[in-house]
Amino acid sequence: MGTMNKDVAHIRSATSVADARRSTREFLKGLERPAIAAESADTVVLVVSELVTNALLHGGGTCTLELTAQPDSIEVAVYDPSPQVPHMRTPDLNDGTGGFGWPMVNRLARATAVTRRAAGGKTVSAHLAR
C-alpha cells in the first residue's frame, strides 16, 4: 500500500493539471505487488484529471490531490475549499459548458463520495479498480 499527496494551484493553469497527471503516473509506476494494469492506470489518470480540473475551476483555485493504493483499488481524493458539491446535470451539447465529467467519473469508479470537511470545503473521492 502507498499514499501520495500533491498540492495543486493556479485555477487557469493547464500545467497544474498536467503535473497532477504526471505525479499520478509516477505514483502508479511505483506500485509493486500487485502492479496496476495499463488500462486501469489510464482510468485513474483520467479521473485525476477530471477531479483536479473541476476542483480548480469550481473549488476556489487550489486543491490537494491524495492517492491511496489498496491491494485491489486506488482511491483518488481531491480536497478543495469550496462547499459546493458536484452534481449530475444534462451535458451541454450545444454551448460547450460541460456536464460530462461527473457522470463519467461515476461510471468509471466503483464508488464515489463527497464529504464536507469540518474546517470548510469538501473532499471528492473516487475508488477505482487496480
TrEMBL record:
> What terms describe the molecular function in GO for this protein?
ATP binding; protein serine/threonine kinase activity
Residues folding into a coiled coil are none
- Tell me which residues make up the Histidine kinase/HSP90-like ATPase domain: 15-125
UniProt keyword Nucleotide-binding present: yes
Asked if the keyword Kinase belongs to this entry, the reply reads yes
Which keywords does this Swiss-Prot/TrEMBL entry list? ATP-binding, Kinase, Nucleotide-binding, Serine/threonine-protein kinase, Transferase
Q: What is this protein called?
A: ATP-binding protein
